[in-house]
Amino acid sequence: MHAIRVSVLVGSLLLVGACRAQQPADYRPTATVKDIMDSIVDPSADALWDSVGTTISAAGTEQRAPHTDEEWANLRRRTVQLIEATNLLLIPGRHVARPGEKAEDPKIQLAPEQIEALINEDRQAWTRRAHGLHDAAVEAQKAIEARNAEALLDAGDVLDKACENCHLTYWYPRKPAAATSK
Ligand code: HEC
Predict the structure, then answer these.
(1) How far apart are CA 2 and CA 180, in angstroms?
(2) For residue range 23-42, what is the model confidence (pLDDT) as tens digits?
């Protein structure tokens, strides 16, 4: 008798737990997708891209790569920002832009409300794109933890494609494909 009562109690607690897990009300998605791009995603990706590569100029050829502990540590911080930004992008109820914000180049870019409609039409597709960015950033993080500049350069290409895959779907689907390779 006692055991039955306990199991009923546990059962209803589990039920309450399950309902709460589906309830997104605990999140407060204040920033917009545009804000997250501008404040977190773009500066973090730029730091990774700028850290490795070759610049050829009149002064000669310059090879860039991280060297000091602090440089590698800073790059790893950037990957943490990128990885977790992908979860921020998935929080339900987050708006693409603030009310009244317009596309900078409406000939090429969709309006924020059009982007938001596309996202809400198929949340799974949006999730796949965000996960593409997540996985690319994890690759970059592995390269950084291995202190492998070559692998970081390759991860940078994968990262670039993850950005473009999502932007071509939601931000500027009308842009001719030939013009998009970075
Ligand atoms: C899951 C989809 C998705 C991924 C992945 C993604 N973006 Fe975006 N990004 C968007 C959308 C949607 C917009 C358009 C929002 C707006 O500006 O109205 C945008 C806009 C931007 C903007 C313009 C922000 C502004 O202030 O107008 C920049 C810069 C940007 N993204 C950079 C990046 C970079 C760099 C990456 C990859 C490292 C990336 N994004 C990955 C969806 C994505």
Answers:
(1) 68
(2) 557 999 999 999 999 999 99
